Amino acid sequence: MTARWGRRSHGPLFAALAALLVAVGCAAGGVGDDGAREPAEPAPQRSRPATSPEAQTTRADGTTSVAEFTSDINDAVDIAERYWTAEFQASGQQFQPIRRILPYQREGEVSCGGQALPRNNAVYCSQGDFIAYDVNWSVAAFRQVGDAFVFYLLGHEYAHGVQVRLGIRADFTIQQELQADCMAGAYLGDSVRDGTLKLDAGDLDEFREGLLAVGDDPDQPWFAEGSHGTAEQRTDSFFRGYEKSVDACDLR
Which pLDDT belongs to residue 102? Predict the structure, then answer.
């Protein structure tokens, strides 16, 4: 997946792969939690990952280097900021980008709502207005699934920040999570259509592969706290946004 900085038009806003990826989402300290605690010496907004595991599986597209991972992270955040800024402006609103993007390497290095973030996770914390992600786990996912998954991962967590800015709340976790998947799909689909992003061969398959890996266990009740949706639900939500833009994501 390649970033291209072009102009885009916007409508109104109204509106062991599975084992590696199963923790993705907002399980610890997501939308609406209190008392966020960041590292004693906060990292800059876009810190470069310090270390990463060796690649166990290398994709054919050669997505293996930490430098490429870092570039994709930065591009994903830049595009999300531009996308949501333009969407808010089209609706006569001002958008404030998410304050910080924090890579971490150890459990407890970052916390949200008084809860230490575990390894193998990515999360948006509303109180600190930051996205945090386990850099070692994220690089491993990048290597096994491909670079498209990085854009989805950041897009999903960024969508939670947009939900907070719009005052969107839901009765059940699964509703917010599936909406965030739809919003991630919208930001990516619109960015491809306007030329900001260029899909490389296999990127759509990488989206599908990653989404199939992050679905809830079929036995998990849909109404349980922390439920994100089955693999099929998450895939359907993402591609609904990807194909139909934000109008499909019930942002009214």
Answer: 96
Residue type for 117, please? L
Q: CA-to-CA distance for 123 and 27, rounded, in angstroms?
A: 7
When pLDDT is cut at 50, 70 and 90, the band that residue 234 belongs to is very high
Nearest-angstrom CA–CA distance, 87 and 187: 10
130-134 and 122-125 strand pairing:
antiparallel
Beta partners for 243?
none
Label residue 59 exposed, middle or buried (CB < 10 Å: 0-12, 13-18, 19+).
middle
Distance CA 58, CA 62 (A): 7
Q: pLDDT tens for residues 135-181?
A: 999 999 899 888 888 999 999 999 999 999 999 988 888 999 999 99
Number of H helices, E strands in the chain: 7, 7
Q: Show the tokens assigned to 192.
A: 């491809």
Q: Identify the three-state secondary structure at position 115.
A: strand
Instruction: Tell me the CA end-to-end span of the chain in Å, nearest whole number.
Output: 31
- Say if CB 97 and CB 162 are below 8 A apart: no
Give pLDDT tens digits for 64-117: 788 999 999 999 999 999 999 999 999 999 999 999 999 999 998 999 989 999
- Phi and psi, residue 115, nearest 5°: -115, 120
Place of tokens 């946004």: 241
**Bridge partners, residue 46, by sequence:** 101
Q: What is the DSSP letter of 149?
A: H
